[in-house]
Design goal:
Blueprint: E1 8-15, E2 32-34, E3 41-43, E4 47-50, E5 55-62, E6 67-74, E7 82-89, E8 96-107, E9 111-120, E10 125-131, E11 135-136, E12 142-149, E13 161-171, E14 177-189, E15 194-196, E16 204-208, E17 213-218, E18 224-232, E19 237-245, E20 251-255, E21 262-270, E22 273-281
Antiparallel strand pairs: 1-15, 1-22, 2-3, 4-7, 5-6, 6-14, 7-13, 8-12, 8-14, 9-10, 9-11, 9-13, 16-17, 17-20, 18-19, 18-21, 21-22
């Protein structure tokens, strides 16, 4: 079968100040405290609940980046087995948010589901739950993300929406014991505000290439290190790499084969200088 050639459309954008702001505390599960409900320890600021008929353990393990959390569940029941969540109080002022987490299976054939709710000033649930389908997990890390739009309240509703319950439900299939590994949870506003620039910078610019490689082309005489950050359109960082600019070459390659099709923002930073590109990978 002939190899399918990936296509890329590249556009240069400039932006108002971009803040990729994660409102979750301890999103990478790096900090642990003495546990409860029979657990030796749990990630700080996070909570969990096993459903009736289900037992299990939460354990610190190697994650995608630093520590992650290994969740084992055993027992049989219909529906989900465990809910793992954090309550965000305050700071929810924008209209549209992104939810994201990295996950992979450890044993069995489990799945995960976002199931979250908006909260008012009294921590009462508001509007409809923010729910995804059930994502099946593989042996390798994958990033799962959805959008959540803050609901419109009736004019006579006495409270404001100020909080959010970020929840992950673990679903077991038919195995008696199954386990998943989670890392890098994210909840933050989608605040990218990009507009097209009519001219390219003479200092740094991208050109497209065949296959899964983009090339970074830079101005004559420029040298040193440049940091290349890749964000999803939701503002979630999916990759970061520091590249060396070699005087006289004026061109280096950047591998994007691991990025699934979608829209990305490429941020290149050197010293106090930065440029933003929008990338559509087909």
């Amino acid at each position: 079968m002939a190899n399918k050639i990936k296509s890329f459309i590249l556009m240069l954008f400039i932006t108002t100040p971009v803040l990729f702001n994660n409102l979750l505390r301890n999103p990478g599960f790096e900090y642990w405290i003495p546990g409860n409900q029979g657990q030796d320890s749990i990630p700080e600021y996070w909570n969990f609940s096993f459903l009736p008929g289900i037992s299990g353990t939460l354990t610190r393990t190697d994650g995608y980046d630093g520590y992650g959390i290994l969740i084992n569940s055993s027992g049989n029941r219909a529906g989900y087995d465990l809910e793992f969540y954090q309550v965000i109080s305050g700071g929810v002022v924008d209209s549209i948010y992104a939810l994201s987490i990295k996950a992979k299976k450890n044993s069995g054939n489990p799945g995960i589901q976002f199931y979250s709710v908006w909260l008012d000033e009294c921590e009462q649930e508001v509007g409809f739950p923010v729910a995804s389908g059930i994502f099946g997990l593989g042996d390798d890390w994958e990033q799962f993300e959805i959008q959540a739009e803050k609901p419109q309240l009736p004019d006579d509703y006495p409270y404001e929406i100020v909080g959010f319950r970020f929840g992950i439900r673990i679903h077991k299939s038919i195995s008696e014991v199954e386990s998943v590994v989670l890392d890098n949870a994210f909840f933050g506003p989608i605040i990218l505000n990009l507009r097209e620039s009519k001219t390219r910078s003479k200092r740094l610019s991208y050109i497209s290439a065949k296959g899964n490689v983009l090339q970074l082309e830079y101005g004559s005489g420029l040298s040193g290190m440049v940091k290349v950050e890749v964000y999803s359109i939701h503002g979630i960082k999916v990759r970061e790499e520091t590249l060396s600019l070699i005087g006289g070459s004026e061109k280096i390659s950047f591998d994007i084969r691991e990025l699934p099709p979608g829209v990305y923002v490429i941020v290149m930073v050197q010293d106090n200088f930065s440029e933003f590109f929008k990338l559509l990978k087909l």
